[in-house]
Amino acid sequence: MRVALVYKKESESVAERVRKFLERVSDVAVFSSPTTELEDFDVLVIVGGDGTVLRTVQEIKNVPPTFVVNTGRVGIFSHANAEDFEDKLEEALKSMEYESFMRLEAKVKGSILRALNEISVLTHTPSRLLKFEISVDGELIEEMRSDGMIFSTPLGSTAYNLSSGGPIVDPKLEAIVITPVSPFRLGWRPWVVSGERTILTRVELREAVVVADGQKSVVIEPGEVVEVKKSKYPVNFFKVEKRLEKMSKKVRELT
């Protein structure tokens, strides 16, 4: 078994402990930053926070089964923390049981942006509204002025989507949540559509920026269209016992 270990620089001491533990059971390659080489490994271990996870999986199409040792604040994706990772990691490597979670991809200006949490289309000029026309499988469902629009996965529904008033969605579902950012309308409601649908978003009035998980971005001009749909490349995380309960607890701790 070949294991790749990726870590956040601020967590180097924890990563060293994880490396020593892994070397007892497998061959380990250590990376201080994400790389496409990670696809070639049987297992991926990430030491860091949720942001480290998002940055890492953005670089990979085919994500190996992934175990996360959380050293950040929230840890929505985490399996263990720095104090208790040994037994949980050993059990994961023995069982090799993992779950797949959908990602989104946005096609914009000939480029593909992939996101585990969300694709956001945001005004490029602070305090200046955009006009959105949103179609699902060719059917117009929404016209709205707002600061932006969020297209979230179920697993990412507790991130930017939640802070913008969107719903929390069971991470085992395959769906896309559509939530506006600061809409210029009373009584707005988010949409939740099947993950098998294709969403087209036309942006008017001024420049916008398309952002994937707060990491990569592309600027678009008025009149351009962004296509959002389920990616063919999910993210694979080792199983977590009572994932939904733990996710709920972490969200409550934020309030």
Automatic annotation (TrEMBL):
Gene Ontology MF annotations: ATP binding; metal ion binding; NAD+ kinase activity
Any Gene Ontology biological process: NADP+ biosynthetic process
UniProt-annotated binding residues for NAD(+): 50-51, 55, 117-118, 128, 145, 147, 155, 158-163, 215
EC numbers: 2.7.1.23
Compartments it resides in: Cytoplasm
Cofactor(s) in the UniProt record: a divalent metal cation
Active site per database record: D50 (proton acceptor)
Reaction catalysis annotation: NAD(+) + ATP = ADP + NADP(+) + H(+)
Record has Kinase as a keyword: yes
Origin superkingdom: Archaea
UniProt cross-references to InterPro entries, sorted A to Z: ATP-NAD_kinase_N, ATP-NAD_kinase_PpnK-typ_C, NAD/diacylglycerol_kinase_sf, NADK
Cellular component, GO, one term: cytoplasm
Gene3D superfamilies noted in UniProt: Probable inorganic polyphosphate/atp-NAD kinase, domain 1 (3.40.50.10330), Probable inorganic polyphosphate/atp-NAD kinase, domain 2 (2.60.200.30)
Pfam families named among the record's database cross-references: NAD_kinase, NAD_kinase_C
PANTHER family, alphabetized: BIFUNCTIONAL NADP PHOSPHATASE_NAD KINASE, NAD KINASE
Function: Involved in the regulation of the intracellular balance of NAD and NADP, and is a key enzyme in the biosynthesis of NADP. Catalyzes specifically the phosphorylation on 2'-hydroxyl of the adenosine moiety of NAD to yield NADP.
Protein name, per record: NAD kinase
Species the sequence originates in: Ferroglobus placidus (strain DSM 10642 / AEDII12DO)
